[in-house]
Structures are given as C-alpha cells and as structure tokens.
Amino acid sequence: MTYLTYSGNRIVGVELPGNSSVIYPPPAIPGFQREQFPDLVKQAFEKPVGMAPLKSLVDGNSRILIAFDDNCQPFPPTARPDFRQIVLETLLPLLYSYGVEKKNIHLMCAVALHRKMKEHELRFMVGDKVMSEFFPNQLTNFDAEAPDEMANLGKTDHDEEVEISRFAVEADLVIYVDSVQIPLNGGHKSVGVGLAGYKTIAHHHSPHCTAEVPHVMQPHGSEMHNSIERISRVVQKHCQIMVLEFAMNNATYPGHSAYLGKPADRCNWLERTLKSTAPTTFSLLPEPVCRRILRAVPGAYEPLAITAGSIDGVHPITLQKLKEQLMVEVPRQFDTLVFGLPDLSPYAIDARVNPVLVVSDVLGYVFNWFYNKPVVKKGGTVIIVNPVTEVFHPEYHVAYRLFYDEVLAATQDPFEMQKRFQEKYAYDPHLRDCYRNRYAHHGFHPFTVWYWATYPLTRYLSQVIMVGPKDDRSARRLGVSWAPNIREALAMARKNSGHDDVAALTIPPFLYANVKS
Asked: Which of 4, 165, 253, 458 could cross-link 258 (Cys pair, CB 3.0–4.6 Å)?
C-alpha cells in the first residue's frame, strides 16, 4: 500500500506492507469564526470561570501585564489578523473603559528560552495599531537573562527554584493570552514557564522528568507537568493571574490543501486525484520551490472554546475540548511506526528543521501524542522519513549548531550531556548574548528538546531508523540507525520483530492516540 506523507519539503509516496495501518487525524470540528471573536472575548472577561469579572479586578491605579505566546503558537501560523491582535484590540478598550491608564499597561511576548521575536513578527501577531501605540517601550520580549528584570520567589516543596519576570510580580493583574492546540500547552505552563528563567525551567526540562514516564505532551501522569504545576503554585502566591485560552480545533489546512490530512474515503474525486499526483509533482519541482509552496499554506484553525478565568477553572475546559477534537481510537499497539516529518517545527519558524529538531519533533512530540500508551510497542522500531539536512539557521540556531558539533559528537545520552555540558551552554557569555541581542534560542534550548526524547531513546525503543539522508553521517551523529530506502528500513524492522506489523501516522493535522489494547 502507498502511504502519502512528507519528507522535508516534498510530498512522497512510501510503499508499506499491504497489511499496514495508516492512522489519520479526525475531521476538524467547526469552531468560531474571526468575526465572532470580539464578542466572545468580551463575554469571557465579563463572565470568567473561577474568578471575579475583569471589571471588578482593576481600577485607575492598576498595573497590568498582558502576556502572550510567541509564534510557536498557533503552529503552523494562521493568516492575519492573528488571534492575539483580535484579543488585544478587544481587551485594551475594555481596560480603558474600566479606568486603567495606558501608561500602566505592559505587553510582553512570553518567549521563555525561545528566541525573541523580531519587530515584524510582533507586528504580525499584534497588528499595526497595537504596535504603534505600545512598541517598543510598553511592548517587549521577555528576557530571561536580564538580571534587573527577574524576581526570585523562593523554592517549591521539592526544592525547585522559582525565578520569573519581575513585571509579573509587580503587576496587580497578569492576563495571559494563549492559543492551545495540544494538551502540552496552556494552564500552569503559561506564566510558570513562559515568563521563567533558566534556573526554573531546568527543573522540569530535565531527563530526570522524562526518563521513566513518557508523558510530556499532556499534564496527566507527567513528572514534567507536576514540576511545572508546583512552580506555578508558588507564582500564584505572588501574582494574580487571569488566563484567556483559545482551545483550537485541528484545521491545519485550508480547503484547497485539506486532502493532505485525509484518507481517500473522506476525499472527493478532485482530492483523490491530487493525492495520487502530489508525489510526482513535488519530485519534479526544485526543493526551494516546494518549500515556498508548503510554507505559503496558512493554518485554518478555529477555536472550539474561548474561556477566561483562573488557571484551575479554565484549563480543564480547554483540555476537554482538545480531547473531543484530537482523540483517535487505535485498536492496538504496533511493532513498527513510520512517520514522514515535514520541514516544519515550532522551533524553526522562518528557518529549516535542523537534525536535532528532527529527533525532538518525532520522538519528543509525535511519539508522545497519545492519551494512554504509545502507538508503537515497547522494544519496537520508529522509522523517520526526512532528509535530515545539516543546516542550522545562522541567527536562531547558534546553540543548536554547537550542540550538534560538540555535545552529540561526545554523547547522545541525555544524563551524560546534562552532567558534562548543560551548565556550560546555559551560562556561556556568547550564547547568552545571542539570546538577548541576536534572536537566538537560549544556550539551554537544544538540551530541552533532546531531553523530551529521553524515554523513547533510552528506555522504550529498540531502534530508530532514518530514511532520507544520502548517507549515514547525520544518523551516526544523532545516535540512530540509517537505511538508504524504506524497503531496507522495513526489513530492519522486520528482523527486529519477526514479522510485518506496521502503523504509519499522518500528521499534520494533529491527533492524540487512545490505544485500546
């Protein structure tokens, strides 16, 4: 059978054994339209869950911090106007009508240890009007390495240091605006991570939190999220926080390209034709042209719920809506999982996916997109279809390049790299300068994404096979296997399990598996 999937910036047809299963995401549940957002946002703030109405929380003397996620969310990006622009253009007049003075409002992009947003990226998110009124003095990127902008709030009962933005601590109210696509995000992860420094984030972005249990992509059963919640509870003792969460559907593709995420029986005749001809069409086009075509497709996400209030009141509503949209029933586990990775990553916006992100995106993200257990059996095989191009963005991925050349050349073991290299990278003056002033991810960031793959890499899988690179160079550096084509990769998997028992995932759109047995 032919499995239509991505390999970087190409769409390819991969031949799988005839008895293979291809797991597709559920159809998108229709959500709210953009023209409805202003009224729904206003209603959410007027009738929040678990908190008093916004109007009763502020007055003429209130200092307000409005924080929002960077361009990792929503992913891939949607067309303008961005949801953040619509929220801000609704929220700011509300605050003014309640007596809040503009001079007492600060807007902050909560980048945590991600790269800072450039001016044009902020403009895309918040719109021209907000930019002209607040940028640059009252609209800033969070800076985790600015010592005069951080506040230490003590420790949790697990001895985790809590260091967050002083703007949040000094505000009378923090309003966190969040677009939530998967259960990983939102909730306690908002202020407690988005506005936190290295000393805090290092506690939960650690192989010790991800080695024994696989859940990093949802709060339930996750050591990582347990740590995040403990830290958030300390933050809540010092900050009054109201969250506004958009629980998004999984409409990655607009209508003309929706066939990419649908099985043939859900396609019309034109979509079936496009599915059958896409691999040939993309094989004839130069790779840069393929990249431009795929990057030009905006996300078509719509919110299923827009809810404001306390973290504990709002986030369960968001998680339930996401479950209704994302959950796919999978009858059993499989010996082999095949996944074609596109040249897309939330950490490679406006950049190429580098080899470190290939491992993280598949084994950190996709492997963990389940509710109860992985799609692949313990001791099984994951086959990654991607060219694994050794390209690192010269601005954004400075630390990733060094991590690939130095850390992975010495070890692929998360615990060893944590011991030998983590502090060096986190405190390196050049990498700190690149993070603060040159739009680079923090020196610790490549470690965090590698740590997310700790469980499948060190405890669960017997082999990971790369298909797509011309030779085994990048696979050897990443500590995984390589095959020149899918036929030989499947033979390697068959040798491991004794038979063909293959499942393949079609992502995007996003899905979470619920494996029955």
From this structure: 253
Residue 363's contacts (CB-CB under 8 Å, 6 or more residues apart) are: 382, 452, 453, 456, 457, 461, 464
Instruction: State both tokens at 162.
Output: 């809590």
pLDDT of residue 256: 73
Phi, psi values for residue 246, rounded to 5°? -100, 110
Global pTM value:
0.96
Where do the domains of the chain lie? Answer: 1-27+327-517, 32-111+145-248, 255-295
Q: Which of 183, 199, 172, 198 is nearest to 57 (CA)?
A: 172
Residue 330, φ and ψ in degrees, nearest 5: -115, 125
Return the CATH fold of 1-27+327-517: 2-enoyl-CoA Hydratase; Chain A, domain 1 (3.90.226)
458-482 pLDDT, tens per residue? 999 999 999 999 999 999 999 999 9
Return d(Cα 123, Cα 114) in angstroms, integer: 18
The pLDDT mean for the chain works out to: 96
- C-alpha to C-alpha distances, 461 to 152, 178, 358, 359, nearest whole angstrom: 40, 34, 16, 13
The domain 32-111+145-248: what is its CATH number?
3.40.50.11440
Task: Please report the pLDDT score of residue 260 as a whole number.
Answer: 84
Give CA 514 to chain center in angstroms: 20
